[in-house]
Amino acid sequence: MRMIARRLFFYLVTAAVAVSLDFLIPRLIPGNPVDAILSRMQGVTVTPAIIHSLDLQFGVGTRASVWAQYTHYWNDVLHGNLGVSSGNAFAPVTEVIRTALPYTLGLVGVATAISFVTGTALGALVGWKRGSWLDNLLPAVTFFQAAPYFFLAFLAIDVFAITLGWFPSGLAHQSYDFPAFNWTYITDLLDHAVLPALTIVVASAAGWIVGMRNLMLTTMDEDYVLIAAAKGLSKSRVIWYAARNAILPSVSGFALAIGFIVSGSLLTEIVFSYPGLGSLLLQAVSNNDYALMQGLFLIITFAVLAANLIADFVYVFLDPRTRQEA
Amino acid sequence: MAVGIGIELDSGGAPVPGAVSPGTVPGRRRSLRLPRSPKMLAGLGLLAFFVLLAIIGPFVAPYSPDQIFANSPVPLPPSAAHWLGTTNLQQDVFSQLLVGGGDMLLVSFLAGVIATVLSVVVGVTAGYLGGWTDELLSMLANIFLVMPALPLLVILFGFLGKTGSNDLFLVGLIISVTGWAWGARVLRAQTLSMRNRDYIDSARIIGERQSRIIFREILPNLTPIVASSFLFTVLYAVGTYTAMAFLGLVNPDWNWGGMLFYAQGANAELTGYWWWFIPPGLAVALLGTALVLLNFGIDEFINPRLRAAGLTRRSGGGGRGRVRRVGRSQQFALTPVIRAGGLRAPATAASFGSESEVLP
Q1: Nearest chain B residue to A230, by CA
Q2: Most A CBs within 10 Å: which of B234, B235, B269, as the mutation test of the A interface?
Q3: Among candidates B11, B270, B305 on the partner chain, residue whose Cβ is nearest the Cβ of A131
């Protein structure tokens, strides 16, 4: 368990760095963010109170020391106060994010899980059958690995939603208001999630396939695999032994991949007008809604750290060596 | 075991689409090994094409990318006058495509260079010095690795505003800040393993200066990894720059991400204007593919086991069964040799490769 404790400490430090960056960036980059926000506020009555709170948030024209501002900022973050979103009639950022978060968690979470499982399995197979026709998969995989997620989203919409008409081209469900949680609603939700999820799976599985293939190639040369085969164990069992050992770096590599996948998925959401965090990000960008950008950065970072922690637990579960240390 | 598998498997005999040509000349053994891998050749060819496109694109573009040809909101499909059709503003897509590669390559290359320098400095310092320096630098690298880049870049470019994000150097710099950590981590690990090898120990005992040990003994042996991490960062920068332009955070006039930004804004994917969004997306994807292929080549170079797999597949052109087994046996011989080579002498990337090629 010492490993988990160490990782936990690291994630806490990372979270603290994220909060500090959130605080520092608006203060380090020249320019007045409050003016930029207000310039987008035509037609909305902006009270002096709002201007004052914006000034406070970005440290414009305050006489408080930077350290005092910093502790104040921490206090706000710890109390769940991430400021107000200028693009959403000055609603609290946490409220705005809360409505969108479940969509992203559901979509990206499920898609990432599917892509990890299928990608790893496929990669193990391709690695095992090296030199066979399965290697022909690699060029295609390379292409998907290199293509931007959102370009694949464009293609998916064009082919499956417009030309073939199999799935809806965007949004998360038919009507904007939240209907009863019944079967019609669930199927509708799934129907809308298929294409975005498929895009994320296809785009992100490539990395797992290549990674797992390379690890399989390395593992297959280990002596214990040779012995397993020499003992006459069935082929599937030998593959299983090799794959079990090859998967470990894949799991620890999850930490590095997840941030990349989340970034790609957010852009995919934008193309599908999926009402998750990605769409909020675009909205924040086009409105100069800095508080929302900062809030999204924090929430997304925290979510990624949580995903990492889960991966760590899985790793400890899979690899007995990490447990012996304690 | 591995031999057994090799014989059991039937390769089906399908031609490999990824292979550009069977022109793997087995002759020049002493030469640099890298370009002989078909993956490498395909990657180099593609990359050369894109570099050429970026340089001559603006000169051969039939029109100005901003030129508006008519006053109609409906994009026109490809025709003789407009090879890739027009946008909703009646601008020529083909010209935008030709012009759009330059900034992209420039920014990506710049970000790649800056990030690679950063990662070498941080990685080698951490790996060589060890101790608290290592702890701190590793933690810094890990923090940047775990933190999701996209929302961080959104804040950075968001606060920077439009004027700041038109500065290509600044854009490259910011992208590199989020992209150096991976290389630093890999280089640190490799430096760590180098530091404890005999030839480094002997250099230290002879009394070589630390700077000489780092620059003359360690760094040359890191060349393939530095190259790989450079390509990786360029790939990352291509994707990131495209994404930033697609979000409207950096100037979209004219790069491929910007074309997608306008296409998305006009719902081109919903109305079937494929000629508008497929060319730029495909260009980004192919440029990325070129970089991934090159990286594959370097990976196979660094890890001989992967290369052996490549050899087997590739050498299937002639008598398949026989050559395949040769590939296998080579693979067994290669592994210890390359390790010994790395231990024995501080070799450059080129001699490193040729040595392993000759000795078995």
Answers
A1: B1
A2: B269
A3: B11
Boundaries of every domain in chain B: 34-310, 320-360
End-to-end CA distance of chain B, in Å? Answer: 20
Tell me the pTM. Answer: 0.80
In the numeric block, which tokens belong to residue A41? Answer: 């506020």
CA–CA separation, A17 and B25 (whole Å): 53
Which chain A residues are closer than 8 Å to B270 by Cβ?
Answer: 157, 161-162, 169-170
pLDDT score for A176 = 53
Contacts of A146 in chain B (CB under 8 A): 235, 285-289, 291-292
Q: Which chain A residues have a beta carbon less than 8 Å from that of B284? A: 147-148, 151
Please report the sign of the dihedral spanned by the C-alpha atoms of residue B72, residue B78, residue B82, residue B85: positive
Residue B71, classed as helix, strand or coil, is: coil
Structure-derived torsion over alpha carbons of residues B275, B260, B101, B17, reported in degrees to the nearest 10: -60
Chain A, 292-321: which have a CB under 8 Å from a chain B CB? 293-294, 296-297, 300-301, 304-305, 308
**Position B9 pLDDT exceeds 60:** no
Tell me, what amino acid is at B130? G
> Is pLDDT larger for residue B288 or for residue B272?
B288
Nearest chain B alpha carbon to A169: B270
More confident residue, B1 or B122: B122
Q: Which residue has the higher pLDDT, B356 or B191?
A: B191
Q: pLDDT per residue over B264-286, tens digit each?
A: 888 777 777 888 888 888 999 99
ipTM score of the complex? Answer: 0.85
CATH, range B34-310: 1.10.3720.10
> Which residues of chain B are within 8 Å of residue A128 when distances are taken between CB atoms?
5
Where chain A has pLDDT below 70, the residues are: 41-44, 62, 172-181, 324-326
Q: Which residues of A touch B244 (CB under 8 A)?
A: none
Q: Does B145 sit within 8 Å of A259, measured CB to CB?
A: yes
User: What is the predicted pLDDT for the residue at B33?
Assistant: 52
